[in-house]
Structure formats: structure tokens, C-alpha cells
Amino acid sequence: MVISGDKGLSEAARRQLQKEIADLRAQRAALAPQPGEQERTGDAADQADVIDRAEAAARLDRQISEVSAKLEHGAYNSSLLPDGTRVSLRFADGDEEVLNVVTLPGDDLDSVTSDSPLGLALVGAKAGDEITYRTPRGETTATVLELTPPKD
Question: 86-148 has which fold?
């Protein structure tokens, strides 16, 4: 459920981002030089290891900044369906499914990310509309049976 003022993130998405930041910070801490390590002189392999760790640390710092920005400013993009939107679809083979639109991918098999081809095809759609989107096997169509925005 999306709560008003949460910048487009569901509670599950917020928890997922917080866990990701914690994991990245733990990885970053493991790369920090030990006391006195930088003062030691060693062979080229030792220096290469220090350089590799510094590059990995910089990469992790960038990831931490990106995830922190998502958490602070939200992942909401007004051109996408908001997190928590429920959509009922009938696919070309007659199969019907109810899916939840999510901002961040997760383990829920009944979800579709808002920026996926299907999620993008749903933008602006309403009940009765036929949408077309790309899959790895080519274009496919579905009919929107119902589209319910999240409750504030």
C-alpha cells in the first residue's frame, strides 16, 4: 500500500531499499584499509590490491548514494503507474491475471514493475483498452479488465 507522502514507495519497497543500503555499507566497511595498512610498503601485487579495493569502494559509494537518493526522494515518476496499483488483465491466450504494480522488483510473482514493458504499456490505459507490449518472444497483447490506483 502506498502511503501519502511516501514519495511513491510502498513500505515493502522502502524496507528493501533500507536493507540494500545496509548491505552495501557492510561491503564498503569490509573494504576499508586496516590501521597502518596504507603506510606499509609492499610489492606491486600489494599495491594493485589496494588500488582494486579503492575502486571497489568508490563503486560502492556511488551505489550507496543512488539507493539513498531513491529512499530520500522516492522512486516516483509521474509518467509511470504508482506503486500499489492493481491491474486485472486478459491475455491473448484467454488467461486472466491480477497483478500489482511495484516500483522495485521483488519476489512476488504476481507483480509487474512500473518501468517494465508491460508496466509502461499500462500507463494511461483504462478498463476495456487493449494494450501491446514487447516480450522476449516478440509483441503480445492484453485487455485491461480493471485498473485500480492505490489508496492514499
Answer: Chitinase A; domain 3 (3.10.50)
